[in-house]
Design a protein that fits this description.
Blueprint lengths: L8 E4 L11 E6 L16 H9 L3 H22 L8 E3 L5 E3 L6 E7 L2 E7 L4 E7 L6 H8 L2 H8 L4 H22 L18 E2 L2 E2 L8 E5 L6 E8 L1
Antiparallel strand pairs: 1-2, 2-6, 3-4, 5-6, 7-11, 8-9, 10-11
Family: Belongs to the P-Pant transferase superfamily. Gsp/Sfp/HetI/AcpT family.
GO molecular function: transferase activity
InterPro entries: 4-PPantetheinyl_Trfase_dom, 4-PPantetheinyl_Trfase_dom_sf, AASDHPPT_N, P-Pant_transferase_sf
C-alpha cells in the first residue's frame, strides 16, 4: 500500500519495534478545500454520501468523507477488491466491520486535520488521535477519563503544559484500548476509569489487568496532536 494508490495524502506510520508485523497504521491528512462532489470521493456509496451531507459543518463532512474513502482504498488493497464495491457494516455497538470473508479487523480515528487507520488480519486493533490543544481544560474531563494511578502520575508533573500533554497521552491510549475492545466510551464491561495506562515507559503504556489482554503504545503524531494504538495479544 503506497500513498500513490489513493487520491489522498496518506502515509504509513512507523510503529514500535516490538509491534506485531500484522499490525499496520496509516496517517491521513484531510484537505478541507476539496468539494465533496469531487472525484476523490467517488468510492462512497449512497448511504455514506447521505451521512456526509447531514453534517452541518463542511469540516466535519470532509473528515468523515476523507477517512471513509481512504479506508475503502486501504481495505481494497488489503483484500484485492474494488474500493467502491466493499460492503462496510457496523455491529450492534456501532463498530464498523468489513462484511466479506477473511476480512481484516480495522479501526479509524480523526481529529483536526488528520486521521488514522489501523488494520490487522491477526488481532483486534484500536487507534485514536486527538488535537492536543494547549488551552484544553483537561481537569473538567479528568473524572470521566482518569483512574487513580493516572491522576497521580499527571498531578505529579511540575507544570501545566506537561500535565496537559500527559492527559492527552492517557486519553488517546484509553480510547485506543476501548476501541480495540469494541465498546467505545461508556462500554458496559470496561470504562475509561476502570483501568490505568500510566506511567508510560518509552512507547508502551503500563496497562493494568482490568484493561484485558491488550497492549497500548504511543504513535508519532503530527505536531500539536497525540495518538495511540492498541492491539490484542
Amino acid at each position: 500500500m503506497t500513498a500513490t494508490t489513493i487520491p489522498f495524502d496518506i502515509q504509513p506510520m512507523p510503529l514500535p519495534a516490538d509491534a506485531p508485523i500484522d499490525v499496520r497504521v496509516w496517517q491521513v491528512q484531510i484537505d478541507f478545500s476539496a468539494p465533496l462532489d469531487s472525484a476523490a470521493y467517488a468510492v462512497m456509496n449512497a448511504s455514506e454520501r447521505a451521512r456526509a451531507a447531514r453534517f452541518l459543518r463542511h469540516a466535519d463532512a470532509a473528515r468523515f468523507a476523507t477517512l471513509r474513502c481512504a479506508l475503502r482504498h486501504v481495505l481494497a488493497a488489503d483484500t484485492d477488491r474494488d474500493a467502491a464495491s466493499l460492503i462496510l457494516d457496523a455491529d450492534d455497538r456501532g463498530r464498523p466491520f468489513l462484511a466479506h470473508p477473511d476480512a481484516p479487523d480495522f479501526n479509524v480515528s480523526h481529529s483536526g486535520a488528520f486521521g488514522l487507520i489501523a488494520v490487522s488480519r491477526e488481532r483486534r486493533v484500536g487507534v485514536d488521535i486527538e488535537e492536543a490543544r494547549a488551552t484544553f481544560k483537561w481537569r473538567e474531563l479528568a473524572p470521566a477519563v482518569l483512574a487513580d494511578m493516572d491522576r497521580r502520575e499527571i498531578e505529579g508533573l511540575s507544570d501545566e503544559p506537561a500535565q496537559n500533554a500527559r492527559f492527552f497521552d492517557c486519553w488517546t491510549a484509553k480510547e485506543a484500548v476501548l476501541k480495540a475492545h469494541g465498546v467505545g466510551i461508556g462500554g458496559a464491561a470496561i470504562t475509561m476509569t476502570s483501568f490505568s495506562v500510566l506511567p508510560r515507559k518509552g512507547d508502551r503504556y503500563a496497562l493494568t489487568r482490568e484493561a484485558g489482554a491488550f497492549v497500548a503504545v504511543s504513535l508519532e503524531a503530527p505536531c500539536g496532536y497525540a495518538a495511540a494504538l492498541s492491539w490484542s495479544y
